[in-house]
Structures are given as structure tokens and as C-alpha cells.
Design a protein that fits this description.
Structural class: alpha+beta
Shape: globular
Number of strands: 7
Helix content: 25-40%
Order of helices and strands: EHEHHEEEEEH
Low-confidence stretches: 141-153
Number of helices: 4
Largest sheet: 5 strands, antiparallel
Strand order of the largest sheet: 1-4-5-6-7
């Protein structure tokens, strides 16, 4: 498989079917494995409420953004935010709850906003609506057709 790019949708501008699919795939609490290398900058790891962050329940977090493959329209990474004792923490999660980055909203590197082509927006809506229709008929909710990417991430 060739290298692919990603497009980041904020939760506010993402196609509705993409948001539904992310929430479907991230239904229910799960335990994240947080390692020192996941924190940016690394010093944050010493001050982080690791136990609170590791006990990830999407109901306690706000979905901030979703990265989708620019060729397939399927999501490969999600960005979640949560206020813990006055600090807004941000976690970027990939396939099988792989933690890519843990940081604070204040320390997060600003990502330049990119205008998303309306045709691509419609494509992502269509792809994720079809995936949701298939998932809703699958009793297990497992995505057996996930494909591994060059960076080891897997699209959903």
C-alpha cells in the first residue's frame, strides 16, 4: 500500500456520518497505555494525571478533531480533549487505541487550518454513511476490513 496523506476535520466541520462513526467505534470506556514518549513535551508526563487520562471514557471527553485518509475517507486518528483540574488535556488516538500524542491544549502545536474541498467533504460523508450502515447490521461492531497503513496505523 502506498503512503497516504490525511485531512483533519474539526468536530464542528466534520461530516455528520464521520462523527457518528467515531462515536460508534469509541463507544464505552477503555484503558489506554500511556508511555513517557507519548507526552509532548516530555516534561508534561511528570505532571500529568496519568491514571485519570489512562481510564479513557469517551463520555468524559470532547471529540475535537478527526483525521481521515485523503484517498479513502476513513478515519485513522481522533483527537479528544478533557479538562482535569483546570488543565485541558489533549489525546490523539489511532487504531486499537494507540496513543500517538498526549499534551495540553496550551502546549499543543497549532495546526494550520486547511480549507476542505466540498467534494471531499461529500465523499467522506458518503463513505462513512456506508460504513455505518454496514456496522449497524454487524452484531459485533468489529471492523474486520481495517487496513494497515505505512506508519502502522490502521484506518477504520
Amino acid at each position: 500500500m502506498g503512503k497516504y496523506g490525511t485531512v483533519r476535520f474539526t468536530a464542528d466541520d466534520a461530516p455528520p456520518s464521520l462523527i457518528r462513526r467515531v462515536r460508534f467505534k469509541f463507544e464505552g470506556p477503555r484503558r489506554l497505555k500511556l508511555r513517557p514518549r507519548d507526552f509532548e513535551p516530555r516534561e508534561l508526563g511528570r505532571a500529568a494525571p496519568v491514571e485519570t487520562l489512562a481510564a479513557f471514557d469517551p463520555a468524559d471527553w470532547t471529540l475535537a478533531a478527526v483525521d481521515v485518509r485523503d484517498d479513502a475517507g476513513r478515519f485513522v486518528r481522533t483527537v479528544w480533549e478533557r479538562d482535569v483540574d483546570g488543565t485541558v488535556w489533549r489525546i490523539e488516538l489511532g487504531f486499537r487505541d494507540a496513543v500517538h500524542v498526549v499534551t495540553t491544549a496550551a502546549a499543543a502545536a497549532p495546526r494550520r487550518s486547511r480549507r476542505i474541498d466540498p467534494g471531499f467533504h461529500r465523499h467522506v460523508e458518503k463513505v462513512n454513511a456506508a460504513l455505518m450502515a454496514a456496522d449497524e447490521t454487524d452484531e459485533t461492531g468489529d471492523d474486520d476490513e481495517a487496513e494497515e497503513g505505512e506508519d502502522g496505523s490502521t484506518e477504520r
